[in-house]
Amino acid sequence: MSLTLHYHPLSSYCMKALIALYETETPFERNVVDLSNPAERAAFLALWPIGKFPVLRDDVAGRTIPESTIIIEYLAQHSPGKTELIPRDADRARETRLRDRFFDLYVHAPMQKVVTDKLRPAGQHDPYGVAQAVAQIETAYAMIDGEAGATPWAMGETFTLADCAAAPALYYASQVVPLGGHRNTAAYLGRLVERPSFARVIAEAAPYRALFPG
């Protein structure tokens, strides 16, 4: 494959895709897109009119693959590496996808609500919506805490798609909604941060860290 990832290093969903690329040791080209640059924005919208990161382009196959979960599914199918991100067993694969959706919908999405509200101009904030988002995150923390102490990763002993989703979601969420007494969740995040693939992603995002309004 001849792959190019169109992304930004600070984007949480881009982090999710990058983790998978590093876990599978898939060769790829990088195109860091500055959406504030009119030319770069126009080129990206020509590729994917929705304008959301990340987008993977497979020039050999002539395919444009958007959305972090779908990118990881694509890698699991076409570029499987030493890390089996989606289990072969159908039941375990379904459970893995469920946990992926859990982290995206109940940690990642409400985290983004809290963060984007900080970027709104004065008088345009949504305190009620933020309170709902915070409550959703805290509920998710408690659910994760009930399971995270039993095994190192979301699906047991093996790092999977679910952990790719969990890493940036928990990393950013913990900066806007502290983990408090959720010790198992905190320990799980600690393991994710120490995972070489995610440690690399965090290091690559460091030059842009000041842009995060956490």
Quick overview:
With 214 residues, the chain is of the alpha+beta class. It has helices at residues 12-23, 38-47, 68-78, 90-118, 127-147, 161-176, 183-194, 196-205, and strands at residues 3-7, 29-32, 55-58, 63-66. Helix content is 57%, strand content 8%.
Provide a descriptive summary of the structure in words.
By secondary structure, the protein is of the alpha+beta class. It folds into 2 domains: 3-78, Glutaredoxin (3-Layer(aba) Sandwich), CATH 3.40.30; 90-195, Glutathione S-transferase Yfyf (Class Pi), Chain A, domain 2, CATH 1.20.1050.10. 57% of the residues lie in helices and 8% in strands. The chain contains 8 helices and 4 strands; from the N terminus they run E-H-E-H-E-E-H-H-H-H-H-H. The longest helix has 29 residues, at 90-118. It is globular.
Q: How far is it from the N-terminal to the C-terminal residue, by CA? A: 37 Å
What is the CATH class designation of the largest domain? Mainly Alpha
**CATH architecture classification of the largest domain:** Up-down Bundle
What is the rounded Rg? Answer: 17 Å
The biggest beta sheet is recorded as: 4 strands, mixed
Which descriptor suits the 3D outline? globular
Instruction: Round the mean pLDDT to the nearest integer and report it.
Output: 95
- Which regions are unreliable across 5 or more consecutive residues at pLDDT < 50? none
The CATH topology of the largest domain corresponds to Glutathione S-transferase Yfyf (Class Pi), Chain A, domain 2
Order of strands across the biggest sheet?
2-1-3-4
Count the domains: 2
What pattern of helices and strands is seen along the backbone?
A: EHEHEEHHHHHH
How large is the count of helical segments? 8
Helix vs. strand class: alpha+beta
Helix content bin: 55-70%
Number of E strands:
4
